[in-house]
Amino acid sequence: MKSHRQFLVLAVLFGLLNPLSAFALFQDCKDLFPGQKIPSTQQVGRDLCFDSFAIYYSPSDKKPIYTVEKLSREQLLAPHPKRSNQFYEEARLPLAERSLLSDYRGSGYDRGHNAPAGDMTNERSMTQSFSLANMMPQARQNNQGIWAKNVEEPTRLYVKRAAGDIYVYTGSTGNSGSIGSGRVTIPSHLYKLVYDPSKNLAWAYWIENTNEATMTPPISYQDLVQKTGIDFQLALNTGTTKAQAATPEPKSNKAMVGGWYPVFFDDYSSIKIDQLINHIKEGQVVSIEIQYDRNSDLAKKIVAQIALQTSITPVLVHSSPPDSVTVTYERNRVTAIIRSR
Where along the chain is Mg(2+) bound (predicted)? Predict the structure, then answer.
């Protein structure tokens, strides 16, 4: 009973310190937005910064309202890390607002990336892209077919040919029901907005979230604003058709901002444990959440080792991923979500 009361107190404090708002701030990652201008919307959400992308997240729909990326030719032509396929629940969100691995089990829907794993240029960003906060319930054939081949890949090809930075917003809208006990909203439509400031050019892909969806011509920026109710604050000069060069934005030397990152355990690793303990003792870690499904013994062993040797006692959270022939290892995996300073 005491631990339950403590949990409620912490939950209330989290809500007070992190109030929901229709005015996203993105203080740690404004440089990801064109002109550092944050989109305007009446939808209430939470802003989440990662190293290479940002998410405006809906606690009611339990999926992104939108994500934003700042991409360049140099980024996408550089060597890319191997796709991790290691999904995890977003520890920055209160439990009541998270989508869970179990929500997707048996749903028939993929965990569809908003900010694509294929855009990530280092292992840390790749890992962060598998946060469930970056996922939406997406029709399986849509995700693996038309979306990957006719939306994501053409966007990357455009970026690779572009002269400057390209900004990409991805999101979904509409309501076609929900999945899981957490009632994660199934969107009716998906979109990807591409903005090239150097050419005063923007367009959006807009497709149904169905396995039978077919490609239609891209829609205009104005049409997307009308369909989504989001003003993305793009500095488009709609009064001219001539491409205009935009003033280059100053390069940012900002350090990585992804203050939360996962460490995966498929078995006990003294090396990983020692690294975590050293980081804690060096003052680099604020808190740790341990997520597990079947392997409670491993999870408890990790918690015990960290608690024994440091001042931090990790929070233990039971979490069940969906069954899948391609990711069966998830059921026995233990994930440590680290909050760094």
Answer: 143
Amino acid sitting at position 17: L
| Tens digit of pLDDT at every position of the chain (341 positions) | 444 445 444 444 444 445 555 556 898 899 999 999 999 999 999 999 999 999 999 999 999 999 999 999 999 999 889 888 899 999 999 999 999 999 999 999 999 999 999 999 999 999 999 999 999 999 999 999 999 999 999 999 999 999 899 999 999 999 999 999 999 999 999 999 999 999 999 999 999 999 999 998 999 999 999 999 999 999 887 543 333 333 334 334 443 344 567 788 888 998 889 988 998 998 888 889 888 888 899 999 999 999 999 999 999 988 766 555 545 556 788 888 887 76
Distance from C-alpha of 124 to C-alpha of 166, rounded to nearest angstrom = 21
Please tell me the pTM assigned to this model. 0.75
- Classify domain 260-340 by CATH architecture: 2-Layer Sandwich (3.30)
Indicate the class that CATH gives domain 30-231: alpha beta
Query: Could you list the active site residues?
Result: 113
Residue 122 marked ligand-binding: no
